C-alpha cells in the first residue's frame, strides 16, 4: 500500500490529519527507493524496524483532535503499517533465514602476495595456481625464477608465512605458463598477519 494510504488509515484510527503520520509511513516504505519489489520490506517491515522508527521519530507524536492534543505511540503507528502490509509483524530473522549466504558476507578477502613471500616456487617460472589465484607482476615472476634456481631458506619465514606456505603447497598445481597465484585470507588469518607485524 502507498504511504499516503497508510497515513490516511492512521489518521482515521488515531485522529489528526494524514500529514501527521506521513513522515513515519514514508520512512517505513523508503526502502522502495532501492528495491522496487516486495523484498524492500526486509529493510524496515519487521520488529526491529518498529523500534528504529521510535528511535528516529521519538516515542510519541502529538496529533490534534477536537478535544485537544493526543499522544500517539510511534511504535503503534509502525506496527499498524506493517500489519496492513503483511498481516503480522515478522522479526528480521524471518527475512534473513531465506537469504543466501554469499562468500563476501563472511569477511573473506583476497590478498595479493608474491609466492616467494611464502617460500613457494614454480618450476621454470611456470604457473602456480591455488583455488583462488591472482596474476603475479613481472618482478614476482622474476622472484619465482630466482627461487626455483637457488632454493629458498624457510627459516626466514614467520610462523604465519610458514602456515600459508604449507596451505598453498597443498593446494597449488603447476603448469608451464605465466606465473599466477591466488590467495584468499580469512579474518582469522588476517588477524594473525596483523599480529605478526605489530
Describe the overall structure.
The protein has 198 residues and is of the alpha+beta class. The protein folds into two domains: 3-99; 109-197, no CATH class. 47% of the residues lie in helices and 14% in strands. The strands form four sheets. Strands 1-2 form a two-stranded antiparallel sheet. The chain has a two-stranded antiparallel ribbon with strand order 3-8. Strand 1 (60-65) and strand 2 (68-73) form a beta hairpin. The longest helix is centred in the middle third of the chain and has 13 residues, at 74-86. The radius of gyration is 29 Å and the shape is elongated.
Q: What is the tally of helical segments?
A: 9
Q: Describe the global form.
A: elongated
Hey, roughly how much beta strand do the residues contain? Answer: 5-15%
Count of DSSP E strands?
A: 8
- Main-sheet strand order equals 1-2
Instruction: Quickly give the structural class.
Output: alpha+beta
* Distance linking N and C termini: 55 Å
> Which H/E pattern describes the elements?
HHHHEEHHEEEHHEEEH
Residue runs with pLDDT of under 50 for 5 or more positions: 123-141, 172-182
Estimate the helix proportion, in percent. Answer: 40-55%
Mean pLDDT: 74
Described by strand count, sense and barrel closure, the largest sheet is:
2 strands, antiparallel
Rg (C-alpha, Å) = 29 Å
Count of distinct structural domains: 2
Amino acid at each position: 500500500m502507498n504511504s499516503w494510504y497508510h497515513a490516511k488509515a492512521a489518521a482515521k484510527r488515531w485522529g489528526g490529519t494524514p500529514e501527521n503520520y506521513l513522515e513515519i509511513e514514508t520512512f517505513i516504505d523508503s526502502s522502495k527507493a532501492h528495491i522496487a519489489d516486495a523484498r524492500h520490506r526486509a529493510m524496515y517491515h519487521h520488529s526491529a524496524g518498529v523500534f528504529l522508527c521510535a528511535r528516529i521519530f521519538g516515542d510519541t507524536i502529538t496529533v490534534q483532535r477536537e478535544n485537544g492534543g493526543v499522544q500517539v505511540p510511534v511504535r503503534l503507528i509502525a506496527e499498524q503499517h506493517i500489519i496492513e502490509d503483511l498481516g503480522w509483524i515478522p522479526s528480521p530473522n524471518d527475512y534473513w533465514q531465506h537469504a543466501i549466504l554469499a562468500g563476501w558476507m563472511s569477511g573473506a578477502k583476497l590478498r595479493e602476495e608474491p609466492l616467494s613471500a611464502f617460500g613457494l616456487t614454480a618450476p621454470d617460472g611456470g604457473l602456480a595456481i591455488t583455488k583462488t589465484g591472482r596474476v603475479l607482476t613481472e618482478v614476482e615472476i622474476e622472484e619465482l625464477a630466482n627461487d626455483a634456481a637457488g632454493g629458498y631458506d624457510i627459516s626466514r619465514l614467520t610462523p604465519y608465512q610458514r602456515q600459508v606456505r604449507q596451505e598453498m603447497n597443498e593446494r597449488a598445481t603447476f603448469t608451464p605458463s605465466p606465473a599466477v597465484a591466488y590467495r584468499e585470507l580469512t579474518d582469522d588469518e588476517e588477524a594473525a598477519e596483523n599480529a605478526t607485524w605489530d
